[in-house]
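ok here's the first one, seq then struct tokens
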Amino acid sequence: MKNTKKFSLLTASALMAGSLFSAPVFAETTGTTGGGSASTTATADIKGGSLTLNGSLSPISLSQTLNGSQISTDAQSLGSVEIVDARGTGAGYSLTASATALSGTHGNVVLTPGSVAKKDTTSDATPTLVSGAQTLTTNPTQILTAGKSSVSEGKGSYTVDLGSLQITDIPANAYAGSYSTTVTVTLNAAPTGQE
């Protein structure tokens, strides 16, 4: 700190002395002003997330009265689920449904899918939902697929109305009683037919 003070005083003295013996000096202008620019590269590292199925299925309580002929139960909503594909790969996926055989009687477990819609408006085009009634068995049945024919499909978040479930083709000779089946919906990390 002491050296700095000395240097400052000497510099000030020299400037004062110079001003006594020197002619005035004026700054020279060139007619243009200085300018410039600076640039940089910003890099954003966007990491892929996961493929998830959110939500739960609604409890189903179906009923019908035997009448001496083949019958079907009423239909009830299976509920809705949310599919989120945040992988950022366009690899696609499929949603399948299966059902165990009815305990104690014959009949078919039938699902009629509802609809699919974007949850976030910036998502890709909506996945493809099958149309019409689908008979469920222990072998998974495809009800929705994304990315099988186009990578611009299925990335983002979607709400899937799974539609209605009913038991059909209950024979005329069925016994009265309570029958059950377990319905399972599975999200697969590849479009149907691709592994």
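and now the second one, same deal
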Amino acid sequence: MKSGIMEVPDMFVVTKADLGDMAAKAVADLEGALSLRLHPGDWDARVLQVSTLDPRLGIGPLIAALDAHEHWLKTQGLRDLKRRDQMKSWGRTNLLLHIGRDGLAALSEKSLRHLDSETPFQSFINCGLRCSFKAVKRLLPQIRGWPYG
């Protein structure tokens, strides 16, 4: 395992589980790493194996595990919160990609309160990723110094 910071997801999926020892080692490594968590939380992160060659390790158990996780998120009241946080993260990344660090800094400096009651950025967050490029195009002309407005 490489040293550094690692985000611990809610589920790990080892593909090509039919490779025998290599897949078993990957599963053991992941389970070993998960056992070192200081704050495991309420959801028990799972390590799953999938294979197109072994029907016992097909897509069915993966779908069942994903459904169980979604049900847990809903019952804990976390699903919408996590989705919104992820959209914000993707939105920031998308803006950063399209307008760069300086453009994002300019946006922060301008302060969203000086724009309409629902800013292009808020509009982007509210409607989700499907309109991200449209929101970025609406946002760019409002950033001071953007040459393509």
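notes on #2: The helical segments are 21-35, 59-75, 79-110, 120-127, 132-139. The first helix runs from residue 21 to 35.
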